[in-house]
């Protein structure tokens, strides 16, 4: 059990909750319900962040939102990821998790694709009152670019740092960061990253936020700045989310360098 009262941050990867190979948004209904049930077994405070999967990456790619400002594309993509958020929140509530959607487009401002400010007071109050904020990968306003694609993989470490949360995990569709033989690497630190760099690539599906490499880089940066250890694990396997939320170390650990 996670004995502390500190909240946990869980990311549900787009490949775990949607069919990321689809040309438009398709939810993996059975997986989403199983995941919602596992989340409902956790008694502590938590923030859920989910990826955009086929609800976001397909449209972001179609309108070139990772390269250009396109107002129509921004609206279509934002509306689509909001639909996914509503399905995630609906599934969580159907299992008694008091989940509320918080859309990053409404509360974050970016500069050159990185979060510059984010309004967090409502999230803090939700946590205090036992509600579960659900954020997600989104289109966000950007001071330099007009809009940018804001990945859940960037939101997770940002929230951890700003809210002082030290337990976080990204649940995707692989057993962790896989080596050349397809086996999960138990631990990566800033010091050992170069040993594994050649095995880590982008997503196998349509994706504008860097796939596995994007995740590892975000979490390594967090480990350097804050000494936080985080986890990348398979949310597609039954019980893994429950195990992670309750304090087990599963998948690949992204840890700070060891002190000598
Ligand atoms: N070494 C590696 N280990 C594991 N997965 C890898 C590796 N290199 C590349 N990948 C790819 O990265 C994918 C995970 O990244 P992806 O961004 O698709 O995940 P996600 O977080 O579930 O999706 P989303 O960004 O929509 O939330 C894997 O499914 C795999 O195709
Ligand atoms: C493609 C969009 C709109 C957001 C991407 O977020 P992610 O799936 O968490 O990387």
Describe the structure.
The chain has 260 residues and is an alpha/beta fold. The chain has one domain (8-254): Carbamate kinase (3-Layer(aba) Sandwich), CATH 3.40.1160.10. It is 38% helix and 20% strand. The protein has 10 helices and 12 strands. The protein has helices at 14-17, 29-40, 53-62, 71-94, 104-107, 121-128, 152-163, 193-196, 211-226, 240-245; strands at residues 8-12, 46-50, 99-101, 108-111, 114-118, 132-136, 138-142, 146-150, 167-172, 187-188, 230-234, 252-254. The strands form 2 sheets. The chain has an 8-stranded mixed β-sheet with strand order 3-6-2-1-9-11-12-10, with helices on both faces. Strand 4 and strand 5 (114-118) form a beta hairpin. The model has no long low-confidence stretch (mean pLDDT 96). Isopentenyl phosphate (IP8) binds at residues 14, 51-52, 56-57, 60, 77, 81, 137-139, 149, 151-153, 208-209. The site of Isopentenyl phosphate has 17 residues, from helix 3, helix 4, strand 7 and helix 7. This is Isopentenyl phosphate kinase.
Summary tags:
alpha/beta, Carbamate kinase, 4-stranded mixed β-sheet, 38% helix, binds adenosine-5'-triphosphate, binds Isopentenyl phosphate
Summed up:
This protein is α/β, with parallel strands linked by helices and 260 residues long. It has helices at 14-17, 29-40, 53-62, 71-94, 104-107, 121-128, 152-163, 193-196, 211-226, 240-245; strands spanning 8-12, 46-50, 99-101, 108-111, 114-118, 132-136, 138-142, 146-150, 167-172, 187-188, 230-234, 252-254.
Topology:
Blueprint: E1 8-12, H1 14-17, H2 29-40, E2 46-50, H3 53-62, H4 71-94, E3 99-101, H5 104-107, E4 108-111, E5 114-118, H6 121-128, E6 132-136, E7 138-142, E8 146-150, H7 152-163, E9 167-172, E10 187-188, H8 193-196, H9 211-226, E11 230-234, H10 240-245, E12 252-254
Parallel strand pairs: 1-2, 1-9, 2-6, 3-6, 4-7, 9-11, 10-12
Antiparallel strand pairs: 4-5, 7-8, 11-12
Helix pairs in contact: 2-4, 3-4, 7-9
The protein binds adenosine-5'-triphosphate and Isopentenyl phosphate.
Residues 13-16, 20, 51-53, 57, 137, 152, 172-174, 177-178, 199-201, 203-205, 207, 209, 211-212 line the site of adenosine-5'-triphosphate.
């Amino acid at each position: 059990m996670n004995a502390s009262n500190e909240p946990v941050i869980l990311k549900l990867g787009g490949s775990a909750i949607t069919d990321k190979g689809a040309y438009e948004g398709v939810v993996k209904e059975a997986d989403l319900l199983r995941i919602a049930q596992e989340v409902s077994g956790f008694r502590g405070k938590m923030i859920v962040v989910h990826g955009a999967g086929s609800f976001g990456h397909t449209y972001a790619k179609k309108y070139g939102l990772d390269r250009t400002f396109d107002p129509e594309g921004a609206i279509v993509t934002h509306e689509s990821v909001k639909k996914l958020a509503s399905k995630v929140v609906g599934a969580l509530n159907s299992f008694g998790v008091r989940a509320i959607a918080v859309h990053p487009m409404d509360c974050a401002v970016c500069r050159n694709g990185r979060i510059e400010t984010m309004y967090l007071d409502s999230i803090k109050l939700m946590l205090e009152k036992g509600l579960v904020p659900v954020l997600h990968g989104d289109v966000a306003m950007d001071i330099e670019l007009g809009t940018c694609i804001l990945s859940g993989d960037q939101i997770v470490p940002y929230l951890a740092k700003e809210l002082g949360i030290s337990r976080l995990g990204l649940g995707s569709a692989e057993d962790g960061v896989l080596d050349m033989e397809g086996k999960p690497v138990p631990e990566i630190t800033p010091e050992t990253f170069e040993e594994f760099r050649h095995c880590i690539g982008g997503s196998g599906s349509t994706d504008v936020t860097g796939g596995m490499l994007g995740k590892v880089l975000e979490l390594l940066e967090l480990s350097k700045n804050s000494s936080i250890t985080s986890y990348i694990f398979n949310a597609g396997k039954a019980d893994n989310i429950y195990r992670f939320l309750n304090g087990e170390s599963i998948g690949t650990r992204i840890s700070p360098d060891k002190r000598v």
